[in-house]
Amino acid sequence: MSLAPPLLAVEGLTKSYGGIHAVRGVSFSLRSGEILALIGPNGAGKSTCFDMLNGQNRPDSGHVRLLGEETTGKKPREIWRMGVGRTFQITATFATMTVRENVQVALISHRKQLFDLWGSAPNVDRSEAGRLLELVGMGGYADRPCGELAYGDLKRLELAVALANDPKLLLMDEPTAGMAPRERVELMRLTAQIANEKSIGVLFTEHDMDVVFEHADRIIVLNRGTLIAEGSPAEVRGNPQVQAIYLGEGLLYEGGHREGASA
Amino acid sequence: MAFYVVQFLTGLASAASLFLVASGLSIIFGVTRIVNFAHGAFYMIGAYIAFTLTERFSGAFGFWGGVVMAALAVALIGVLVEMVLLRRIYHAPELFQLLGTFGLTLMVEDLVVLIWGPDDLVGRRAPGFKGAVDFFGQNIPSYDLFLIVLGPVVLGILWLLFQRTRWGVLVRAATQDRDMVAALGVNQKWLFTSVFAVGVFLAALGGALQIPRDAVHHAMDLRIIVEVFVVVVIGGLGSIVGAFVAAVLVSELNAFGILIFPKISIILVFLVMAAVLIVRPWGLFGKPEAAARKTPGLSVNPWRPLTSNERLASLAALVIAALLPLFAGNYALTVGSEIAIFVIFAVSLHFLMSVGGLASFGHAAYFGLGAYGVAFLAKMAGLPMIVCLLLGPLLGCMGAAVFGFFAVQLSGVYFAMLTLAFAQIVWSIAFQWVSVTGGDNGILGVWPASWAASPSHFYWLALGVAALVTIALRIAVFSPFGYALRATRDSLLRSEAVGINAKRIQWTAFVIAGTTAGIGGALFAYLKGSVFPDNLGISLSVDALVMVLLGGVETVSGGVIGAIVYKALNIWLVSQTDLSKLVLGGFIVLIVVVFPKGIVGMLEMLAQRRRKSPPPGSSLLAKPIESAE
Predict the structure, then answer these.
(1) Do B479 and A116 touch (CB under 8 A)?
(2) What is the tens place of the pLDDT at every residue in B413-458?
(3) How confident is the model at residue B470 (pLDDT cuts 50, 70, 90)?
(4) Could you give the CA distance from residue B372 to residue B398 in angstroms, rounded to a whole number?
(5) With 60 as the cut, is the pLDDT of residue A249 above it?
(6) Is B488 among the domain residues?
């Protein structure tokens, strides 16, 4: 065991809205290169938890640390500058710009050239943008207007944009929501490969249990705002409490795939 | 003490009309999402028609009947406008709706003068409320007391209407989610029409009820619309209670502001508004607006820098323009200079609007500040022209830095209304602070130095500056900053998620646009030899908007073309007809309905269609060939 702080350390994260405890004392950690899935039924507090990690939402109490450095209370853009890339559940891209320009904006921001009024943006890191797009399999789409892309391609573009600042940590909120089954597998395989090569930690929420059990190194389970289970896919699958929550459904996962169940 | 109570009651009485008009605007916005600029025009027509009817019919019935009939008649006009114009532009960007209804306002201003003449009309007193009530030695007109009671009564009626009737339930539902209401099988068309009719009725009633208090005149529309914007911004768009509270607040601020700061009373109201917007951007009683459902698949041509051929063509056009003094007379050159100056003005707003997605409705403030900056430096400090030209725009820069900081905290219609309000503040300072600005008389005798005095020299100067400004802004569009600005326009969420401080980027863009407008204003002061409050008035702000939209807001160079076409047309119209506002207004309405993409946008679309689509009939044939390439 090394004494270095983990990539991401979450401690006693708590948030309530009015009388409702959305998240209660959630703690977990994440190592570099590890892929961690955050799952739970609707209303479990996944999104609230996620928003507190990326700065969209402030916790009532608790801490989030990135490599030992406090990120709690920081703005999304500041957290990004600390090396956290993210993708959204509903994609957010620059619709009137081309695919390459989308990536270039992120690169311009990374190079801190945002207030450069004189340079030629179309030439900023053109090859680097192309390389990132190749990485996610979007090389052929570089000059397409982003608004014309199919949904699955938008998700891949978001991944390329999220990788533009050489992140240490990727936060992906339901990365495969709204995608066709084959696209899901491809996107997650790609993510796992990149995370592995660059030793990036990945935290993702997901509803599709196939995706979760196939690609996560470790799983944490939220229910009604509290963390009820944590462990390898096999451990979590065997956890009776988790099975109770995903009543009936859990049994179908035995053998690693389910039959006939719709997502 | 009694004096202050009376002042307070006078304020309450003024609030009644303001509340009627503001609630109408709020109701219409809530359901149709249209910020109805023409609301002031409906208020004005209400007053004019009520004047005619109450003069024609005598007695108490004649008066009160006339007031109600006037409001009903205007509501009918409103229905007509809704069915003929607004139905065509509900799905257009909100900017176009503001602009279209502004076009209507312009038309109405000329029409009322045509029908009722240019003079102020003083109506008769309300029967039964002719006298005054003695209040500890102070007189209060009894009509004021009537109005004080009327305000809450109307509020109550509206409350009942919205809470207790089926129609009210539908309106409230549509205010929350009009797509859902449509999906539930409600006939949206007639819901919108009826809502518009009710809103217009309230506006016209507000106008008609003003007759016993105030003269009817043809500029009352702009005055009320600015106050109403302030009221709905403070109260919260879409909230009727908010409109009531804010109307009282604004009226009281006016009533007491006159006592405390007689010279700059109007600023007080705007300061309160700015404060509210900073603390609660959606107003005291409003709710943060849920993002409207956008139609996906936005197909905008990606912008690209000019190709070398296009650069050559632009250069050739510039050279030809520079040759104008060889064959044109002095008048044409002066017109040419004015057009060049308006190109500067238009491209500055275009930068903010097209690249930044920030539609300023008060951009003339910075143009005018540049002009006043020059006038101050030239007349008071006696500095030479070249120094004035360099330093004058700094006043526009400073104004944009201060106002822009607050304005960029908001977006969409709120941004538009705040910028409009700021421009009105600047205008009222220029108008009221007579000792410094000369008020309505302006500052005269700002003449160019001898090297620029001849029309041809001045023309070259204006043309040169316009070319430089246009080129500089084009470079900025394709600079990293330009990309960042476009990014904040396209998705705030994503830009923040890639480390962009969106507000700071937008603020910078606002300052750049304001400074550039100030450069135009500085030249304008020398062209005209004088500076007036009109140089920062609403109509000039709207001129800029029209130029940008006419050229095409989704294009890179629309501002230039729009300015040339619009200004030339404008100057020509004014020389040809007395009804220039009517024609111009009609023209604006036409652009909004027929050419929503503007001239350049339309040309681009045509060019692209020619390039992309095969001739009709051969599409089946073309496909396999394309894919074989």
Answers:
(1) yes
(2) 788 888 988 898 898 889 888 888 888 889 998 889 888 889 999 9
(3) very high
(4) 13
(5) no
(6) yes
Interface size, chain A vs chain B, as Cβ–Cβ contacts under 8 Å: 123
Best probe of the A interface among B303, B488, B494, B511, by most A CBs < 10 A, is B494
Domain boundary among the residues B256, B279, B302 is at B279
B483 and B402 co-located in one domain: yes
What does each C-alpha distance from B12 to A111, B141, B269, B497, B508 come to in angstroms?
57, 12, 15, 48, 41
Q: Would the CB atoms of A97 and B483 count as touching at under 8 Å?
A: yes
B289 CA: distance to closest CA in chain A (Å): 18
Q: Are A93 and B483 a contacting pair at CB < 8 A?
A: no
For residue B623, being part of any structural domain is answered with: no
Q: pLDDT tens digits, residue range B166-220?
A: 999 998 888 888 788 888 888 888 899 999 999 999 999 999 999 988 899 988 8
* pLDDT score for B617: 39
- Residues of A with Cβ-Cβ distance to B493 under 8 angstroms: 88, 92
User: Cα–Cα distances in Å, from B151 out to A92, B273, B367?
Assistant: 46, 22, 40
Q: Are residues B380 and B452 in the same domain?
A: yes
Point out the residue among A80, A101, A145 whose CB comes nearest to the CB of B483: A101
Domain A8-83+167-252 classification at class level: alpha beta
Do B419 and B558 fall within a single domain? Answer: yes
Q: Which chain A positions have a beta carbon within 8 Å of B485's beta carbon?
A: none
pLDDT in tens, B386-422: 999 999 999 999 999 999 998 998 887 788 888 988 8
- All residues at 6 or more sequence positions from A205 whose CB lies less than 8 Å from its CB, including other chains: A37, A38, A39, A46, A47, A50, A172, A173, A174
* Summary mean pLDDT of chain B: 87
pTM for this one? 0.85
CB-based contact, B486 to chain A, within 8 Å: yes
Same domain, B65 and B201: yes
C-alpha to C-alpha distances, B241 to B50, B156, B234, B248, nearest whole angstrom: 27, 10, 11, 11
Does residue B347 form part of some domain?
Answer: yes
User: Which of A90, A109, A110 to mutate to probe the B interface, most B CBs <10 Å?
Assistant: A109
- Which chain B residues are Cβ-neighbours of A113 within 8 angstroms? 480
B608 vs A: CB within 8 A: no
Q: Compute the nearest-CA separation of A86 from chain B (Å).
A: 7
Per DSSP, the residues of A12-48 read: EEEEEETTEEEEEEEEEEE-TT-EEEEE-STTSSHHH
Domain count, chain B: 2
> What is the pLDDT, as a whole number, of residue B33?
82
Q: What is the pLDDT of residue B433?
A: 83
Domain that holds residue B418: 332-609
Do residue B266 and residue B342 come from a single domain? no
- Calculate what percentage of chain B has a pLDDT beyond 90: 45
Chain B residue with minimum CA distance to A101:
B483
